[in-house]
Amino acid sequence: MSHVHHASRSFLSRIKIEEFVLSGPLFTRERPGKTDSRKYEGVNNMEWLSMERWSPYVVGIGIGLLSCIAFLLSDKPIGCSTAFSRTSGMIEKWLRGGIAAEKAYYKKFAPSIDWEWMLVLGVFVGAFLSATLSGQFQFIWVPNRWLNVFGDTPFTRWAVAIVGGIIMGIGARWAGGCTSGHGISGTLQLAVSSWIAAICFFIGGILTAALFFR
Amino acid sequence: MLKTIHKSEKLQLGIGCILGILFGFLLQKGGVTKYDVIIGQLLLTDFTVVKIMLSAMVTGMIGVYLLRNFGVAALHPKPGSFGSSVIGGLIFGVGFGLLGYCPGTLAGAVGQGSLDALLGGLVGILIGAGLFSEFYPKLDKGILNKGHFGEITWPQLFKVNPWSIIIPVTIGVMALLFWIEKSGL
Fold first, then answer.
1. Are B123 and A179 within 8 A, CB to CB?
2. Can you give the pTM of this predicted structure?
Protein backbone atom coordinates (compact mmCIF):
# COMPACT_ATOMS: atom_id res chain seq x y z
CA MET A 1 0.00 0.00 0.00
CA SER A 2 2.70 2.44 1.05
CA HIS A 3 4.52 1.27 -2.03
CA VAL A 4 1.89 2.72 -4.34
CA HIS A 5 1.75 5.83 -2.23
CA HIS A 6 5.47 6.45 -2.62
CA ALA A 7 5.56 5.64 -6.29
CA SER A 8 3.03 8.32 -7.11
CA ARG A 9 5.27 10.94 -5.54
CA SER A 10 8.63 9.76 -6.84
CA PHE A 11 10.58 12.02 -9.15
CA LEU A 12 12.24 9.16 -10.91
CA SER A 13 10.64 6.03 -12.16
CA ARG A 14 11.82 3.32 -9.85
CA ILE A 15 11.10 0.73 -12.50
CA LYS A 16 13.77 2.20 -14.71
CA ILE A 17 16.45 1.79 -12.06
CA GLU A 18 15.25 -1.69 -11.21
CA GLU A 19 15.43 -2.70 -14.87
CA PHE A 20 18.82 -1.08 -15.25
CA VAL A 21 20.35 -3.02 -12.41
CA LEU A 22 18.48 -6.26 -12.76
CA SER A 23 19.05 -6.56 -16.48
CA GLY A 24 22.76 -5.97 -16.02
CA PRO A 25 25.22 -8.82 -16.21
CA LEU A 26 25.69 -9.01 -12.44
CA PHE A 27 22.16 -9.58 -11.29
CA THR A 28 19.61 -11.74 -12.95
CA ARG A 29 16.33 -12.66 -11.38
CA GLU A 30 16.30 -16.17 -12.72
CA ARG A 31 18.99 -18.31 -14.13
CA PRO A 32 18.13 -21.00 -16.65
CA GLY A 33 18.36 -24.50 -15.27
CA LYS A 34 18.18 -23.37 -11.66
CA THR A 35 14.44 -23.35 -11.26
CA ASP A 36 14.59 -26.60 -9.26
CA SER A 37 16.29 -24.81 -6.40
CA ARG A 38 13.12 -22.82 -5.88
CA LYS A 39 11.28 -25.97 -4.86
CA TYR A 40 14.12 -26.96 -2.60
CA GLU A 41 14.86 -23.67 -0.88
CA GLY A 42 11.51 -22.01 -1.19
CA VAL A 43 13.14 -19.01 -2.90
CA ASN A 44 15.08 -18.54 -6.06
CA ASN A 45 18.84 -18.47 -5.71
CA MET A 46 19.12 -14.69 -5.95
CA GLU A 47 15.64 -13.74 -4.80
CA TRP A 48 16.71 -13.04 -1.23
CA LEU A 49 18.77 -10.14 -2.52
CA SER A 50 15.71 -8.52 -4.06
CA MET A 51 13.51 -9.03 -1.01
CA GLU A 52 12.19 -5.79 0.47
CA ARG A 53 12.83 -6.74 4.09
CA TRP A 54 14.82 -9.35 5.96
CA SER A 55 14.08 -10.55 9.46
CA PRO A 56 15.49 -8.05 11.99
CA TYR A 57 17.32 -10.95 13.66
CA VAL A 58 19.09 -11.95 10.43
CA VAL A 59 20.11 -8.30 10.00
CA GLY A 60 21.17 -7.96 13.64
CA ILE A 61 23.25 -11.16 13.64
CA GLY A 62 24.80 -10.03 10.34
CA ILE A 63 25.78 -6.66 11.85
CA GLY A 64 27.18 -8.45 14.91
CA LEU A 65 29.34 -10.63 12.65
CA LEU A 66 30.48 -7.55 10.70
CA SER A 67 31.57 -6.01 14.02
CA CYS A 68 33.67 -9.11 14.73
CA ILE A 69 35.31 -8.86 11.29
CA ALA A 70 36.01 -5.15 11.88
CA PHE A 71 37.75 -5.93 15.18
CA LEU A 72 39.69 -8.78 13.59
CA LEU A 73 40.79 -7.21 10.30
CA SER A 74 40.86 -3.51 11.17
CA ASP A 75 41.28 -3.48 14.96
CA LYS A 76 38.44 -0.96 15.04
CA PRO A 77 34.87 -0.80 16.28
CA ILE A 78 32.25 0.11 13.65
CA GLY A 79 31.16 3.73 14.07
CA CYS A 80 29.79 6.49 11.87
CA SER A 81 29.62 9.91 13.49
CA THR A 82 33.35 10.78 13.49
CA ALA A 83 33.28 10.60 9.69
CA PHE A 84 30.74 13.47 9.65
CA SER A 85 32.98 15.50 11.92
CA ARG A 86 35.98 14.88 9.64
CA THR A 87 33.91 15.90 6.61
CA SER A 88 32.83 19.06 8.41
CA GLY A 89 36.51 19.76 9.11
CA MET A 90 37.43 19.16 5.46
CA ILE A 91 34.76 21.65 4.34
CA GLU A 92 35.88 24.19 6.93
CA LYS A 93 39.51 23.78 5.88
CA TRP A 94 38.45 24.36 2.28
CA LEU A 95 36.44 27.46 3.23
CA ARG A 96 38.70 29.00 5.88
CA GLY A 97 42.08 27.43 5.20
CA GLY A 98 44.72 27.12 7.92
CA ILE A 99 42.57 28.51 10.77
CA ALA A 100 40.43 25.38 10.68
CA ALA A 101 43.44 23.07 10.78
CA GLU A 102 44.58 24.80 13.98
CA LYS A 103 41.39 23.95 15.86
CA ALA A 104 41.98 21.71 18.86
CA TYR A 105 39.20 19.34 17.84
CA TYR A 106 40.66 18.75 14.39
CA LYS A 107 44.05 18.05 15.91
CA LYS A 108 42.35 15.22 17.78
CA PHE A 109 40.30 14.07 14.78
CA ALA A 110 42.19 15.07 11.63
CA PRO A 111 39.94 16.33 8.82
CA SER A 112 40.92 13.63 6.32
CA ILE A 113 39.57 10.44 4.79
CA ASP A 114 40.09 7.40 7.02
CA TRP A 115 38.73 3.88 7.56
CA GLU A 116 35.51 5.11 9.16
CA TRP A 117 34.93 7.67 6.40
CA MET A 118 35.17 4.86 3.84
CA LEU A 119 32.80 2.80 5.97
CA VAL A 120 30.15 5.53 5.86
CA LEU A 121 30.64 5.91 2.10
CA GLY A 122 30.16 2.14 1.90
CA VAL A 123 26.89 2.36 3.90
CA PHE A 124 25.57 4.79 1.28
CA VAL A 125 26.58 2.43 -1.56
CA GLY A 126 25.30 -0.70 0.21
CA ALA A 127 21.91 0.85 0.96
CA PHE A 128 21.65 2.05 -2.64
CA LEU A 129 22.35 -1.49 -3.91
CA SER A 130 19.87 -3.06 -1.51
CA ALA A 131 17.13 -0.52 -2.28
CA THR A 132 17.69 -0.80 -6.04
CA LEU A 133 17.62 -4.60 -6.00
CA SER A 134 14.25 -4.59 -4.25
CA GLY A 135 12.90 -1.77 -6.42
CA GLN A 136 12.58 0.53 -3.41
CA PHE A 137 14.95 3.23 -4.58
CA GLN A 138 13.05 6.47 -5.03
CA PHE A 139 13.59 10.15 -4.43
CA ILE A 140 11.23 11.24 -1.69
CA TRP A 141 11.09 14.43 0.35
CA VAL A 142 8.42 13.57 2.88
CA PRO A 143 8.23 10.14 4.56
CA ASN A 144 4.78 8.54 4.98
CA ARG A 145 4.55 8.85 8.73
CA TRP A 146 5.40 12.55 8.52
CA LEU A 147 2.96 13.08 5.67
CA ASN A 148 0.05 11.59 7.62
CA VAL A 149 0.56 14.00 10.54
CA PHE A 150 2.19 17.13 9.16
CA GLY A 151 1.23 17.14 5.50
CA ASP A 152 3.24 16.89 2.31
CA THR A 153 5.09 20.25 2.28
CA PRO A 154 8.78 19.43 1.72
CA PHE A 155 9.86 22.68 3.41
CA THR A 156 8.58 21.80 6.90
CA ARG A 157 10.17 18.35 6.76
CA TRP A 158 13.42 19.86 5.48
CA ALA A 159 13.50 22.54 8.21
CA VAL A 160 12.91 20.04 11.03
CA ALA A 161 15.45 17.60 9.52
CA ILE A 162 18.11 20.29 9.40
CA VAL A 163 17.43 21.44 12.98
CA GLY A 164 17.39 17.80 14.15
CA GLY A 165 20.62 17.20 12.25
CA ILE A 166 22.36 20.16 13.88
CA ILE A 167 21.31 18.99 17.36
CA MET A 168 22.35 15.41 16.55
CA GLY A 169 25.70 16.56 15.14
CA ILE A 170 26.44 18.40 18.38
CA GLY A 171 25.14 15.54 20.55
CA ALA A 172 27.14 12.84 18.73
CA ARG A 173 30.39 14.75 19.25
CA TRP A 174 29.43 15.68 22.80
CA ALA A 175 28.81 12.03 23.71
CA GLY A 176 31.75 10.82 21.61
CA GLY A 177 29.73 8.49 19.40
CA CYS A 178 26.38 7.62 17.84
CA THR A 179 23.92 4.75 17.59
CA SER A 180 26.60 2.64 15.84
CA GLY A 181 29.74 3.61 17.77
CA HIS A 182 28.12 3.64 21.20
CA GLY A 183 24.80 1.85 20.55
CA ILE A 184 26.22 -1.28 18.91
CA SER A 185 30.05 -1.34 19.01
CA GLY A 186 30.35 0.17 22.48
CA THR A 187 27.60 -1.84 24.16
CA LEU A 188 28.96 -5.09 22.70
CA GLN A 189 32.33 -4.33 24.30
CA LEU A 190 30.41 -3.80 27.57
CA ALA A 191 31.80 -0.24 27.76
CA VAL A 192 30.18 1.71 30.59
CA SER A 193 30.24 5.01 28.63
CA SER A 194 28.39 3.38 25.72
CA TRP A 195 25.65 1.77 27.80
CA ILE A 196 24.94 5.11 29.46
CA ALA A 197 25.05 7.02 26.16
CA ALA A 198 22.87 4.48 24.31
CA ILE A 199 20.20 4.58 27.05
CA CYS A 200 20.27 8.41 26.94
CA PHE A 201 19.94 8.38 23.11
CA PHE A 202 16.67 6.50 23.48
CA ILE A 203 15.39 8.48 26.49
CA GLY A 204 15.97 11.72 24.56
CA GLY A 205 14.60 10.27 21.32
CA ILE A 206 11.46 8.72 22.83
CA LEU A 207 10.58 11.90 24.77
CA THR A 208 11.21 14.15 21.76
CA ALA A 209 9.22 11.98 19.36
CA ALA A 210 6.34 11.70 21.87
CA LEU A 211 6.18 15.50 22.26
CA PHE A 212 6.61 16.14 18.56
CA PHE A 213 3.89 13.70 17.47
CA ARG A 214 1.55 14.58 20.32
CA MET B 1 49.77 -11.36 9.75
CA LEU B 2 46.91 -9.41 11.33
CA LYS B 3 49.30 -6.66 12.42
CA THR B 4 50.48 -6.26 8.80
CA ILE B 5 46.87 -5.95 7.64
CA HIS B 6 46.12 -3.41 10.39
CA LYS B 7 49.12 -1.30 9.38
CA SER B 8 48.46 -1.19 5.63
CA GLU B 9 46.60 2.10 5.25
CA LYS B 10 45.38 1.52 1.70
CA LEU B 11 44.16 -1.98 2.49
CA GLN B 12 42.33 -0.59 5.53
CA LEU B 13 40.49 1.98 3.40
CA GLY B 14 39.36 -0.88 1.14
CA ILE B 15 38.29 -3.07 4.08
CA GLY B 16 36.40 -0.10 5.57
CA CYS B 17 34.55 0.43 2.32
CA ILE B 18 33.61 -3.26 1.89
CA LEU B 19 32.44 -3.55 5.50
CA GLY B 20 30.45 -0.34 4.98
CA ILE B 21 28.75 -1.71 1.86
CA LEU B 22 27.71 -4.85 3.75
CA PHE B 23 26.61 -2.74 6.75
CA GLY B 24 24.54 -0.44 4.53
CA PHE B 25 23.02 -3.39 2.69
CA LEU B 26 21.97 -4.96 5.99
CA LEU B 27 20.60 -1.67 7.39
CA GLN B 28 18.47 -1.15 4.29
CA LYS B 29 17.22 -4.76 4.27
CA GLY B 30 16.37 -4.35 7.95
CA GLY B 31 14.23 -1.32 7.13
CA VAL B 32 16.09 0.98 9.52
CA THR B 33 17.18 3.39 6.78
CA LYS B 34 13.53 4.48 6.74
CA TYR B 35 12.24 7.42 8.76
CA ASP B 36 8.94 5.61 9.34
CA VAL B 37 10.63 2.63 11.00
CA ILE B 38 12.94 4.71 13.24
CA ILE B 39 10.16 7.08 14.34
CA GLY B 40 7.98 3.99 14.90
CA GLN B 41 10.60 2.76 17.36
CA LEU B 42 10.80 6.10 19.17
CA LEU B 43 7.00 6.20 19.35
CA LEU B 44 7.17 2.61 20.67
CA THR B 45 4.92 1.15 17.98
CA ASP B 46 7.55 -0.69 15.89
CA PHE B 47 10.42 -2.51 17.64
CA THR B 48 12.56 -3.24 14.56
CA VAL B 49 15.40 -0.94 15.68
CA VAL B 50 15.63 -2.53 19.13
CA LYS B 51 15.45 -6.06 17.67
CA ILE B 52 18.33 -5.31 15.28
CA MET B 53 20.47 -3.47 17.83
CA LEU B 54 20.08 -6.06 20.57
CA SER B 55 20.72 -9.07 18.32
CA ALA B 56 23.76 -7.29 16.84
CA MET B 57 25.01 -6.48 20.33
CA VAL B 58 24.68 -10.05 21.62
CA THR B 59 26.27 -11.59 18.49
CA GLY B 60 29.10 -9.06 18.48
CA MET B 61 29.66 -9.31 22.24
CA ILE B 62 30.08 -13.09 22.18
CA GLY B 63 32.16 -12.94 18.96
CA VAL B 64 34.48 -10.11 19.96
CA TYR B 65 35.11 -11.48 23.46
CA LEU B 66 35.82 -14.92 21.93
CA LEU B 67 38.30 -13.34 19.49
CA ARG B 68 39.86 -11.56 22.44
CA ASN B 69 40.15 -14.84 24.35
CA PHE B 70 41.97 -16.31 21.33
CA GLY B 71 44.32 -13.30 21.42
CA VAL B 72 43.40 -12.02 17.94
CA ALA B 73 41.37 -8.95 18.88
CA ALA B 74 41.65 -6.12 21.38
CA LEU B 75 38.87 -4.04 22.93
CA HIS B 76 38.61 -0.30 22.31
CA PRO B 77 36.03 1.01 24.78
CA LYS B 78 35.38 4.75 24.49
CA PRO B 79 36.09 6.97 27.48
CA GLY B 80 33.11 8.49 29.20
CA SER B 81 31.94 10.93 31.83
CA PHE B 82 28.53 11.88 33.13
CA GLY B 83 28.86 15.30 31.51
CA SER B 84 29.71 13.76 28.15
CA SER B 85 27.77 10.47 28.07
CA VAL B 86 24.55 11.59 29.80
CA ILE B 87 24.24 15.18 28.56
CA GLY B 88 25.64 14.35 25.10
CA GLY B 89 23.42 11.28 24.90
CA LEU B 90 20.30 13.30 25.71
CA ILE B 91 21.22 16.04 23.18
CA PHE B 92 21.76 13.34 20.56
CA GLY B 93 18.38 11.86 21.48
CA VAL B 94 16.57 15.16 20.87
CA GLY B 95 18.18 15.33 17.41
CA PHE B 96 17.31 11.65 16.86
CA GLY B 97 13.62 12.31 17.61
CA LEU B 98 13.44 15.31 15.25
CA LEU B 99 15.56 13.96 12.40
CA GLY B 100 14.36 10.36 12.51
CA TYR B 101 17.71 9.01 11.33
CA CYS B 102 21.02 8.49 13.11
CA PRO B 103 24.35 9.20 11.38
CA GLY B 104 24.76 5.65 9.99
CA THR B 105 21.17 5.09 8.91
CA LEU B 106 21.20 8.61 7.45
CA ALA B 107 23.96 7.59 5.03
CA GLY B 108 21.79 4.59 4.14
CA ALA B 109 18.69 6.75 3.75
CA VAL B 110 20.58 9.00 1.33
CA GLY B 111 21.51 5.83 -0.59
CA GLN B 112 17.86 4.86 -1.01
CA GLY B 113 16.90 8.33 -2.24
CA SER B 114 15.54 10.11 0.86
CA LEU B 115 16.06 13.80 0.09
CA ASP B 116 15.17 14.91 3.62
CA ALA B 117 18.20 12.87 4.75
CA LEU B 118 20.52 14.28 2.08
CA LEU B 119 19.59 17.96 2.08
CA GLY B 120 18.27 18.22 5.64
CA GLY B 121 19.91 15.69 7.94
CA LEU B 122 23.33 15.50 6.32
CA VAL B 123 23.70 19.28 6.08
CA GLY B 124 22.48 19.60 9.67
CA ILE B 125 24.89 17.04 11.10
CA LEU B 126 27.80 18.69 9.30
CA ILE B 127 26.83 22.11 10.69
CA GLY B 128 26.34 20.60 14.17
CA ALA B 129 29.74 18.87 14.09
CA GLY B 130 31.35 22.14 12.93
CA LEU B 131 29.66 24.09 15.75
CA PHE B 132 30.86 21.54 18.27
CA SER B 133 34.46 21.85 17.09
CA GLU B 134 34.13 25.62 17.58
CA PHE B 135 33.06 25.28 21.22
CA TYR B 136 35.15 22.17 21.95
CA PRO B 137 38.02 23.89 23.84
CA LYS B 138 35.56 25.51 26.29
CA LEU B 139 33.41 22.39 26.68
CA ASP B 140 36.48 20.24 27.20
CA LYS B 141 37.57 22.37 30.13
CA GLY B 142 34.15 22.14 31.70
CA ILE B 143 31.19 19.86 31.22
CA LEU B 144 32.77 17.15 29.04
CA ASN B 145 35.00 16.02 31.89
CA LYS B 146 32.46 16.34 34.74
CA GLY B 147 32.26 12.98 36.50
CA HIS B 148 34.95 11.41 34.31
CA PHE B 149 35.17 7.61 34.58
CA GLY B 150 37.39 6.79 31.61
CA GLU B 151 37.57 3.80 29.28
CA ILE B 152 36.07 1.32 31.69
CA THR B 153 33.97 -1.77 30.92
CA TRP B 154 31.40 -3.47 33.18
CA PRO B 155 33.69 -6.48 33.87
CA GLN B 156 36.48 -4.06 34.88
CA LEU B 157 34.12 -2.01 37.03
CA PHE B 158 32.83 -5.05 38.92
CA LYS B 159 36.25 -6.78 38.79
CA VAL B 160 34.80 -10.01 37.39
CA ASN B 161 35.50 -12.35 34.48
CA PRO B 162 33.82 -10.89 31.35
CA TRP B 163 31.86 -14.10 30.76
CA SER B 164 30.07 -13.77 34.08
CA ILE B 165 28.52 -10.64 32.56
CA ILE B 166 28.22 -11.79 28.93
CA ILE B 167 26.15 -14.87 29.80
CA PRO B 168 23.54 -13.10 31.97
CA VAL B 169 23.33 -10.19 29.46
CA THR B 170 22.76 -12.69 26.62
CA ILE B 171 20.03 -14.49 28.58
CA GLY B 172 18.43 -11.16 29.58
CA VAL B 173 18.42 -9.83 26.01
CA MET B 174 16.99 -13.07 24.63
CA ALA B 175 14.25 -13.03 27.27
CA LEU B 176 13.45 -9.40 26.40
CA LEU B 177 13.32 -10.15 22.65
CA PHE B 178 11.16 -13.20 23.32
CA TRP B 179 8.80 -11.02 25.36
CA ILE B 180 8.70 -8.35 22.62
CA GLU B 181 7.81 -11.02 20.03
CA LYS B 182 5.19 -12.56 22.32
CA SER B 183 3.53 -9.19 22.88
CA GLY B 184 3.33 -8.80 19.11
CA LEU B 185 5.43 -5.60 18.97
1. no
2. 0.88
